[in-house]
Amino acid sequence: MKVALLGYGTVGVGVRQMLLASPTLEAGPVLVRPGKADESWKVTAMEEILDDGEVGAVVEVMGGVDAAYRYAKAALTAGRHFVTANKMLVAAHAPALAALAEEKGVAFLFGAACGGGVPFLHNLARAVGSGDDVTALGGILNGTCNYILDAMERRGQDFARALSGAQSLGYAEADPGADLSGLDALRKVVLGCAAAWGLLPTEGLLREGIESFTAADVAALAALGRRCRLMGRAEMQGGRLCALVEPTVCPAASPAAAVLENGNLAWYRAKNAGQITLLGQGAGRYPTASAVLRDLEGILEGERSMLPRGCRPCRAEGGLLRRRYYVRCPGSAAAALEAERHFEGEAGTARLLTAPMTPAAIHQWAAARRGAGEEIFFAAWEEEEC
Amino acid sequence: MKVALLGYGTVGVGVRQMLLASPTLEAGPVLVRPGKADESWKVTAMEEILDDGEVGAVVEVMGGVDAAYRYAKAALTAGRHFVTANKMLVAAHAPALAALAEEKGVAFLFGAACGGGVPFLHNLARAVGSGDDVTALGGILNGTCNYILDAMERRGQDFARALSGAQSLGYAEADPGADLSGLDALRKVVLGCAAAWGLLPTEGLLREGIESFTAADVAALAALGRRCRLMGRAEMQGGRLCALVEPTVCPAASPAAAVLENGNLAWYRAKNAGQITLLGQGAGRYPTASAVLRDLEGILEGERSMLPRGCRPCRAEGGLLRRRYYVRCPGSAAAALEAERHFEGEAGTARLLTAPMTPAAIHQWAAARRGAGEEIFFAAWEEEEC
Fold first, then answer.
1. Mean pLDDT within B93-111
2. Chain B partners within 8 Å of A126 (Cβ)
3. Order of strands across the sheet with A81-84?
């Protein structure tokens, strides 16, 4: 099968290299910006790709939403399989693209959009396809944040130094806002919800990043035998869905705490299979490109979709779960929280473990205290190994 | 697709329940022993299954090798897809069954035979199919041994008490020899080699179980921040293959050390994807049955094989790798080993870390010392997180 590429950046270069080495796939035209077509196989107009009757699949690795969406619709309308590594595109337009692909009898796959090299969505979709009932999913879905947390914990770096290290290694963008705030991880949770339940939560999502995490928090958690990870989580209960991203404190001897550097971890829990956890490289040229190639190989084997039929937007409910939270806040602010345990804190600072409460309640409380100018750190307390 | 079952034990009951609940699969006849056909859907002759023209796939969950092999050949010859959870059958006859399935254009899948509910072989086969180059694989592939090691380490039980606990929970057989000696895990490593490289190593395999591990070893390793796991490993170097099962001492903060109870962990390393690790339930009715259902769903999607074409037996080479080993032996026996570090040992006992040496050399040394009546424990020393 001849495969066209949209975009020729870090991942695109890797995908083309692998296509050239593949015994079953053929490297086709690559769409680049006008003026950048310095090779015979580079083209600057989508029509040149769609006019090539041999192109069976189009791979989008250009990023952004609007142009990528136009190209996706054009490729699917023209009866070409469509594979993307673009989580923003999928989070924004999965229902429409899935419906169009089904109508045209072609594939719409996006294994590289969640977990990079970790084959999470594929396995999740396969569990659903085999009739298993997925009840929850989540994981460490942003390698930049994990690199920073790990550098703070194992190398004793402060937040700013760890962030600058992540940037110099190319893990973090010049503007790392979407990573640090949990937005990137949340988009991946949304894709997991789509694969697991055919629901794309667009409202009611809760998100807390790692910007408030400090070296003092590292030390306080280490004394409890715990490490902090930024973890996404989605849970389905009685047809209602909760989806969020939060710092989470895990036992030091847990798979999540053992995820180092910019590694990723993704898990799902299903009625029959139990909990399945996958670890690997969440980003990078070759891991991400390998996920694209696995999708293309899946297409050759007959795979067509990662989504249950009729995937649709929904509203998530932040009040659905009850979790304990580890909180660091000014001593004066702690009284509003029901504490199960108090830990030793710096002067004027409370460190405590709350009684089980809804994610919505702690997020609202933290937002209100921050609105009053207070410094707050909070993180879900993982009861079991995570 | 109508699915017939061979065998109706622990896993078979789970598979039938899931078939009855499946929207895409239909529960067909179930082969049981003569005299046990107490339901209309139970049959006692393979012919009754093959005479049912609606049966599209046959699932073997009866165990044993000879009868299972006859039935497998009969099913494939009759043009039926064949799915098995039987690692002994696959380790013994994969090349012949794969060739027969290919000739008949039907599927031969055995995802449940390695890792139970953990979708290891499927992902490994898919990585290979997408052109990625697998260089090594391994993991914790025997839940019984892991339960025993974990009970010794976290609950302070001695070996006999931990084994008896595993038996009372139904994890260990009345004769647990194949588990404790590493034979069961080694069979799964062999299946991994078949999926990764199309090679079924039948000679030159190295195997050390957990029978020599003691409470004193637990304490000595804990003092080093390490835990013991029984791990399989296979590595391909320049067309030569090493495949073995050995106790392995891992850092306490590693994913392997975080595998508790009867959990499994399986990993592969590939040139493009990097290392991918999967964790989950390695055995049990529903996890294993869920793996069978995933194979059947894969057949509906077009999956036909987990093996590269031309899978063939080969000889493994125990001299291929070089690893450091943690060794406990009588002080008088230690002189024959080149030690990089000496640890504190009980009176008359040496505890040491060897310089890198071949697996063949340490296995031969241990066999010779045991032949002389000495008590030896040795375990590979995991350099990185495992």
1. 97
2. 119, 122, 294, 297-298
3. A42-43, A26-31, A2-6, A55-60, A81-84, A108-109
Q: What are the structure tokens assigned to A68, written together?
A: 């990528």
- Is residue B271 flagged as an active site residue? no
A14 sits in the region (left: phi over 0; alpha: psi -120 to 50; else beta) called: alpha
Give the mean model confidence (pLDDT) for residues A104-114.
97
Residue B342 near residue B224 (C-beta atoms within 8 A)? no
CA neighbours closer than 13 Å in the CB half-sphere of residue B82: 29
Tokens (6 digits) for A272: 């029959």
Of B129, B253, B297, the CB nearest to A130: B297
Query: What crossing angle do the helices spanning A285-301 and B120-129 adopt, rounded to 10°?
Result: 90
Q: Is A117 in Cβ contact with B276 (below 8 Å)?
A: yes
By the 10 Å C-beta count (0-12 exposed, 13-18 middle, 19+ buried), B309 is classed as exposed
Report the sign of the C-alpha dihedral through residues A298, A303, A306, A312, in that order. Answer: positive
Q: Rounded mean pLDDT of B146-156?
A: 97
> Looking at residue A262, what is its pLDDT?
93
Distance CA(A295)–CA(A58), nearest Å, equals: 12
Q: Look at residue B324 in the predicted model and tell me its pLDDT.
A: 97
- Residue A116: pLDDT above 60? yes
Sheet hosting strand B2-6, strand order edge to edge:
B42-43, B26-31, B2-6, B55-60, B81-84, B108-109
Question: What is the C-alpha to C-alpha distance for residues A380 and A207, in angstroms, rounded to an integer?
Answer: 12
The tokens for A299 are 């297409």
Give dist(CA A75, CA A62) in Å, integer.
Answer: 15
Optimal mutation site among B81, B134, B290, interface A, most CBs of chain A within 10 A: B290
ipTM (interface predicted TM)? 0.94
| Residue among A2, A42, A104, A188 flagged as catalytic | A188
Instruction: List B81's β-bridge partners, or say none.
Output: B57
Q: Is the pLDDT of residue B367 over 70?
A: yes
Identify which of B255, B273, B280 has the shortest CB distance to residue A258: B255
Alpha-carbon torsion, ordered B344, B348, B353, B357, to 10 deg:
180
Count of beta carbons in the 10 Å neighbourhood of residue A34: 7
- Among A14, A290, A301, beta carbon nearest to B301: A301
The distance from CA A194 to its chain's CA centroid, rounded to whole angstroms, is: 12
Q: At what angle do helices B87-104 and B183-197 cross, to 10 degrees?
A: 20
pLDDT in tens, B296-325: 999 999 999 999 999 999 999 999 999 999
